[in-house]
Write a structure and sequence with these properties.
Chain lengths: ~270, ~525
């Protein structure tokens, strides 16, 4: 299957993969070009069900690009070209007959900056549900409540569900955005530097939330904060220059990195 | 020493110049000029239209009677006007002379004249005072003055009569008069009304006090309805009896206090706003209605097309040179003169589409056109085309300010592109759309040129709105404030009254635009405060 093996860590990754039968997402030899420039080079990575996997690496190393390959958000950019295979639950999401809309419902995403819609709190969370055609008031209210509870925001907003979402603090907004993603009951959550614009307390709250979400969801989080990766994730992948340099259990990667580049990065000797 | 002082001053100036503070003052200067110009314009409009509403003094004129050669004079009650140079036959000069109609200085007056109304049926012909315009040669004026006791009465049919109030009188019913011939005379000192015996007359009289004429009138009006009348001496010396109940307002224009004059001015302004041109007090209510309806119909036509265009340009179209060219073309449409849109709509829609509609739907009324002639719908269409570029540009600007994050968030939740564009992006861009609409309304409300071709009229009796289906009559010609201004200023022979009325109409138009804009501002503020797109 893997016709080209470039280096050791990819072999190691596929070896790791063989050991588990709870792999939900499997990325194989994924390359992405942006116009003529290759931004991802033969990336191999897998996500295990109900685990948190962190993607770390310097700015511009392709972390976000990789993330967006998982819900095909890169499709929107005509200049972007993709080669390789992304399997989610054994299904090739780049297959021609793949339904992108239902894929995106399965793979929720939270962005770097809190981006609630300019609507009320309730309407934000109900947005995805309404897209699914849910109109019954009672059912909507119940689903919205559950999503807000899951995102640990319910107690703070239960009395002002119909106020503008933009009145919330940015920490609350970020949890609202997570609730919005959770409302459509995805299986996988992609978090793109979700805490980078938050104050330390909001950040800790968010990390707690991630830890609790792990019970139900498979999570891939991009972060530039290595302490955060160490705190929240079970597995960590280090990317550099569009390559996936090293991928292993988080404790292992931070204490005994196998690659020189990983070691340089996590000890701050990078660049 | 002197030179060094000069140098230090120079260097201080230079350093002030380099600090850039000068720009602070330049911008303030520019702002002041703009503000002054706006203020001057507003002041001009306000003062000029106040003249229209402010109660004018009534003058008593004595002029030489041009008709009678014997040098008899004639008394007139008149509003004095401006002095003009017009050809008038010179009564004094030799009437056979060819030069008899040389240019002479004359004063335009509006004066009261008796008009014979044909009696209906058995009723005898009655004469009643009406107001006429006339130019009086300056040489014919014997005397003019502003007597304090001259009164102006507004009657319940809104017509006005000028005259000297003489007394209150009551026609005693025939049965009563046999028993007592009595009159009520006001006590000269207190103004109290007391009953006194008088000569055997069939009427009662009451003394009249000019200072308290209004109180007396109210007292008599509420006390004994219909019974009392005011006796008025008219310009020709005859007297006239006006029932107190028929009088709407009594004014002594030559002895008004400032407060009373201001009150009367406000009253006049209200009459101006609330009456049509047919009423005795000419007003512009139909023109206000026409303007509002025109702007509303324009908005209805404009908004959907402008939104769709802006959304297509910004959300769907590939951003290449064709789109750029299209965008530039649309923006440049804003520079096309309004009258060109008028001609375009006249040719393509009125004669083309309107003619077809008439042939298909209103064939029974042909050859009288229904939609095949200028009307509210076509004028609104021309204004919609005229203001479309502004709204498209503003909407597109708003769309481009919606953060990409918001679009991605919507798509990531499984929205299709259409759901994303209409459910999130356009919703978030509504304040920008309203900004565009505000600009469009301001421009459209004042635009007259296309309306000249498309059904704006100075006067029409047919209402645009009525109780009969379809309620709003889109095909009808309409009255319009801007057109009224144009008509009054250009077509009315430059009379003072017309010019003042044009200013008054301008003021109303300005206020109307302000009101419409305030409405849109409030809507936008509500949208913004509720759903601001500002990050954080």
């Amino acid at each position: 299957m893997h016709a080209k093996k470039h280096n050791g860590e990819q072999q190691q990754a596929s070896l790791l993969q063989a050991e588990h039968d709870d792999v939900v997402v499997n990325i194989r030899d994924l390359s992405v070009w942006y116009r003529q420039r290759q931004v991802l080079h033969d990336v191999n990575l897998y996500l295990r069900e109900r685990h948190v996997t962190a993607l770390i690496g310097p700015s511009g190393c392709g972390k976000s690009t990789l993330l967006r390959c998982l819900n095909r958000l890169n499709d929107l950019d005509e200049r972007c070209r993709i080669n390789g295979e992304v399997m989610i639950n054994g299904r090739d999401i780049y297959a021609p007959d793949e339904d992108v809309v239902s894929l995106r419902r399965e793979v929720g995403m939270v962005f770097q900056r809190p981006n609630p819609f300019p609507k009320s709190i309730f309407d934000n969370v109900a947005y995805g549900l309404r897209l699914l055609g849910m109109t019954a008031r009672v059912e909507l209210q119940e689903q919205v409540r559950q999503a807000l509870q899951a995102a640990a925001l319910w107690d703070e907003v239960r009395d002002r569900l119909h106020n503008s979402a933009l009145e919330l603090s940015s920490g609350q907004q970020q949890r609202l955005v997570i609730a919005r993603a959770l409302a459509v009951q995805p299986k996988i959550l992609l978090l793109d530097e979700p805490a980078s614009n938050l104050d330390p307390i909001s950040m800790l709250k968010l990390e707690e939330l991630i830890a609790s979400l792990k019970i139900d969801y498979t999570i891939l989080i991009v972060t530039h904060n290595m302490q955060q990766a160490a705190r929240v994730s079970d597995f960590t992948a280090f990317m550099d220059g569009g390559e996936l340099v090293e991928f292993s259990a988080t404790g292992e990667l931070f204490t005994t990195p196998k690659q020189r580049r990983t070691e340089d990065y996590i000890t701050g000797r990078y660049g | 020493m002197k030179q060094s002082a000069f140098r230090s001053t120079l260097s201080a100036m230079l350093s002030w110049w380099r600090s850039g503070s000068a720009w602070h003052w330049y911008s303030l200067f520019a702002l002041s000029i703009a503000a002054l110009l706006v203020l001057a314009l507003l002041l001009l409009i306000l003062v000029s239209s106040a003249q229209y509403f402010w109660p004018q003094p009534i003058e008593e004129w004595v002029i030489r009677d041009a008709a009678a050669d014997n040098g008899q004079s004639q008394r007139l009650f008149a509003y004095g006007g401006e002095t003009v140079q017009i050809p008038l036959p010179d009564a004094a000069a030799d009437s056979a002379s060819a030069e008899s109609s040389a240019m002479r200085a004359a004063v335009l007056i509006r004066y009261q004249q008796m008009q014979q109304l044909p009696g209906s049926g058995q009723a005898a012909a009655v004469s009643r005072p009406v107001w006429k315009l006339q130019a009086v040669a300056e040489t014919d004026i014997v005397r003019r003055g502003r007597p304090h006791s001259l009164a102006l009465l507004t009657l319940s049919d809104a017509s006005t009569v000028a005259g000297y109030p003489l007394q209150w009188v009551r026609m005693v019913p025939a049965a009563a008069s046999e028993q007592t011939a009595a009159a009520v005379v006001a006590d000269a000192d207190t103004g109290e009304l007391t009953l006194t015996a008088t000569a055997a007359d069939d009427s009662e009289h009451r003394g009249l006090q000019l200072d308290r004429i209004e109180q007396q009138w109210r007292q008599l009006k509420t006390g004994q309805q219909e019974a009392w009348s005011l006796v008025l001496e008219l310009h020709d010396g005859s007297s006239m009896q006006l029932p107190a109940a028929d009088i709407d307002r009594i004014l002594l224009p030559n002895r008004l206090s400032l407060a009373a004059a201001a009150q009367q001015a406000l009253h006049n302004a209200w009459l101006f706003l609330s009456h049509g041109p047919d009423d005795a007090v000419p007003g512009i209510l139909p023109a206000i209605l026409g303007t509002v309806l025109l702007v509303l119909v324009m908005s209805v036509l404009l908004v959907p097309v402008a939104i769709l265009t802006a959304v297509y340009l910004h959300e769907y179209a590939a951003q290449n040179w064709v789109t750029g060219l299209l965008r530039a073309a649309i923006s440049n449409l804003a520079g096309v003169p309004g009258v060109v849109y008028g001609v375009f709509v006249l040719g393509v829609f009125v004669y083309g589409a309107g003619g077809r509609i008439d042939a298909l739907l209103f064939a029974e009324q042909l050859p009288l056109p229904t939609f095949g002639t200028g009307g509210l719908l076509w004028a609104a269409l021309a204004l919609a085309l005229l203001t479309m570029p502004v709204v498209i540009a503003a909407t597109e600007e708003g769309l481009s300010r919606i953060p990409a994050d918001l679009r991605l968030a919507s798509l990531a939740l499984g929205a299709t592109r259409t759901e994303m564009v209409w459910g999130v992006v356009v919703m978030a861009a509504r304040p920008a759309l309203l900004t565009g609409l505000i600009l469009a309304i301001a421009r459209a409300a004042g635009e007259v040129a296309p309306l000249l071709l498309l059904g704006a009229v100075a006067y029409t009796q047919q209402p645009l709105l009525d109780a009969e289906p379809p309620f709003l009559h889109l095909q009808q010609p309409f009255m319009h404030l801007g057109y009224q201004v144009y008509d009054l200023a250009m077509q009315s022979g430059q009379s003072d009254t017309a010019i003042a009325m044009a200013y008054a109409a301008t003021l109303v138009l300005l206020l109307l635009v302000v009101v419409l804009n305030l409405f849109a501002f409030r809507l936008r503020a509500r949208l913004r405060s509720r759903y601001s797109t500002a990050p954080g």
